[in-house]
Amino acid sequence: MTCKNHNCQCGGSAGQEFAELAPVLDQYAKVPGSLITILQKAQDIYGYLSIDAINYISERTGIKAAKIYGVATFYAQFRLQPIGKYLIMLCKGTACHVNGADMIEEAVTEHLNIKDGETTEDGVFTLNNVACLGCCSLAPVMMVKSADGDETYGNLTKDRVKAILDEIRAREA
Amino acid sequence: MKVVIGQGSCGIATGAKKTSDAFERLVAEKKLKDVVVDKTGCIGTCYLEPIVDVYSDDGTLETRYVKVQPDKVERIVEEHLIGKKPVAEYAVAPEDEAFLAQQQRVVLRNCGVINPERIDEYIAVGGYEGLKKVVTSMTQDEVIDVIKTAGLRGRGGAGFPTWFKWNAAKQNKGTEKYMVCNADEGDPGAFMDRSVLEGDPHSLIEGMAIGGFAMGATEGVIYVRAEYPLAIARLEIAMAQARERGFLGKNLFGTDFSFDLRIKAGAGAFVCGEETALIASLEGERGMPRLKPPFPAEKGYWQKPTNINNVETFANVPWIITNGGEAFAAMGSEKSNGTKVFALAGKIKKGGLAEVPMGMTIREVIYGIGGGIKNDKAFKAVQMGGPSGGCIPADLADTPVTYEDISTTGAIVGSGGMIVMDETTCMVDMARYFLDFTKKESCGKCNYCRIGTKRMLEILERITKGEGRDGDIELLEELAMKIKDGAMCGLGQTAPNPVLTTLKYFRNEYEDHIYNHKCTAKSCKALFHFEITDKCVGCTKCARNCPVEAITGAVKKQHTIDQTKCIKCGKCEENCNFGAIVRE
């Protein structure tokens, strides 16, 4: 199958590369209003939205790649870069802010040497600040997402957050 | 016997899943055949999680255990489940029972009581009776009349009468109409919708179906934020069960009325709480608001008549239908009927969800239910309504919580987040925090909102850094008014509220920052420094923990901080056991 998208850099290989995404598009490509759902599923599969994936979705749905890019960059959930194995979603909601979320962010930044949106060199952690996880009475809170599921940690302190990160890292070593 | 472990997101965050696993393992090991281990949603007393309820065979609650970490499980199993003698020291304290006793639960009636993943438990407490009554014995107008009598107003923030919206959507005749639930609880600091979604999803489904019947919609969509994975999972289970029992799908209760639901996961944009932006997002577009009119009741989702209500509003509906509009109207104040769920968080002793009749005062909620301020510090202000709301100072704490009374303060009831602040919270920094939020969340459609919030944020940042200038306050006020006038949607129109209310009640703090280079709350790093008082016993702990070696002093002698080296990281303050390190 050759790629019909003229701007695509895939060299016509788009169809084969996205074997896991193809069934999603079989289901949703022609259902109006499904773009966000498709992007969410694509991100679930690949961890992020690559330019190739966007081009492939464009080709299958007929929606212009620029528009898909526009939607993908509008919403906080979508990432255009790969992420680490563990995604730290650090809550910066009001309750967490009042209870010292900035200190927790500082601790993560110091300990892992990454800032909001960055990934550690070994590809284990990515730090993302998020608006609110809805566990406000346990503030400050973070959620760590990985292939094994989500784990939420509440009532964090600088020391606790470091211990949690060390424990995960030890598991990885 | 039945052991029920509260497993909402917050319960799980404190380890409820591990507690539940421990119970299951021990019950299996000890071969306790008459003990069932089950789960429920969030009961609202988040500060006591994980919570374990032990019920006797006839269904009465024997003991409520709190803060049950896995290490406490064995004793409960041995002494209570086997020995039949409750472990008194793990049980809930009487003063904590007051947290629940003072509430009046309509929306949260089933949260923390039933297993949200089993429809039979919902049916056993009268679930789907309201839907049955509506579909089999009432007309559309009769349903709308009941909601009108009840005086139910939108719980998402604006407080618009629900019956009016339903009626407007009903009057637009068309083949297709949509009933949409806004479960994109984006207001940071509010989590009552999450609690209902996780703890009682069937009440939302039933409420939507009733509303669908009233307006003549056959399809419903629930727009849930992607940050709530557990809520989505439980909703999916509930919808499948409802379909199986014939509460969703074709020809409900053998009538002509058909109604079905689907979930659409949001992708993280606060502006999607605005109804036209939500519709754009449902259609797969960027969530940018559209001009009104036409209102969604006329032209909404796919240009069809659409009604949008939030989760809490829908969860009230089955109760109103079953108990009557008058019973609902009897609760609350004259114009704000019924109850409202508040999310108590921030510097409060007992954080969690509290559902109270409208009209209770802020003080009653914070002190009566929430137990007052953490560490007995001074109560300074409460933030209500999130980024669209404002800060209400302590001296207005006797304001009744109704839509009308709260708006006179400059704040709004909003979705019901109450973030409590004490003397250590800087109000300028709070305003900066909210503007940072709205600046990031502005969709960019209107210039005033897109650029104005950025400019306001820059000014607030410079004030909190100690670089405030003469005229900054006036400039903030001018920008605030222009953004209010120049923005199209609610996000922009209300974005300046946190600044305006803090300026109204805490102008002195702004002035202190700008003219006296002083942060009243001693929280802005640029405007205070650490000092060691004579309480210091010379234990050297601070010096050992200082990352920049700014602290010197001999053993058993008072230490000193070299201010030129200090980076104000606060490690010394954290580590001092004698309270000898103070902010000046």
Summarize the structure.
The complex is a heterodimer of chains A (173) and B (584). Chain A is α+β, with helices and mostly antiparallel strands and 173 residues long. Chain A is built from 8 helices and 4 strands; from the N terminus they run H-H-H-H-H-E-H-H-E-E-E-H.
Overview of the structural elements:
- The complex is a heterodimer of chains A (173) and B (584).
- Chain A has 173 residues and is α+β, with helices and mostly antiparallel strands.
- Chain A is built from eight helices and four strands.
- Chain A has helices spanning 14-17, 22-28, 35-46, 51-61, 65-74, 94-98, 101-112, 158-172; strands spanning 86-91, 125-130, 142-146, 149-153.
- In chain A, strand 3 and strand 4 (149-153) form a beta hairpin.
- The longest helix of chain A has 15 residues, at 158-172.
- The model of chain A has no long low-confidence stretch (mean pLDDT 89).
- In chain B, the strands form five sheets. Chain B has a five-stranded mixed β-sheet with strand order 10-9-13-11-12. A four-stranded mixed β-sheet of chain B has the order 2-1-3-4, with helices on one face. In chain B, strands 7-6-5-8 form a four-stranded parallel β-sheet, sandwiched between helices.
- The termini of chain B are far apart.
- Chain B is globular.
- Chain B has 584 residues and is an alpha/beta fold.
- The interface between A and B is large, with 42 and 57 residues.
Q: What is the CATH homology-level superfamily of the largest domain in chain B?
A: NADH-ubiquinone oxidoreductase 51kDa subunit
Side-by-side strand order of the widest sheet of chain B? 10-9-13-11-12
Q: Summarize the largest interface: chains and residue counts.
A: A-B, 42 and 57 residues
CATH class of the largest domain in chain A, named: Alpha Beta
β-strand percent of chain B reads 5-15%
Which structural class is indicated by helix and strand composition of chain A? Answer: alpha+beta
> Could you state the CATH homologous superfamily of the largest domain in chain A?
Glutaredoxin
Mind describing the biggest β-sheet of chain B?
A: 5 strands, mixed
- Head-to-tail CA distance between termini of chain A: 42 Å
Looking at how many chains there are and whether they match, the oligomeric state comes to heterodimer
Residue runs with pLDDT of under 50 for 5 or more positions of chain B: none
CATH architecture of the largest domain in chain B: 3-Layer(aba) Sandwich
- Counted by DSSP, the helix tally of chain A is 8
**Helix and strand element order of chain A:** HHHHHEHHEEEH
| pLDDT < 50 runs, ≥5 residues of chain A | none
Query: Mean pLDDT of chain A, nearest integer?
Result: 89
Number of strands of chain B: 17
Question: How would you sum up the major sheet of chain A?
Answer: 4 strands, mixed
Number of domains of chain A: 2
Beta strand count of chain A: 4
Going by helix content, strand content and strand pairing, the class of chain B is alpha/beta
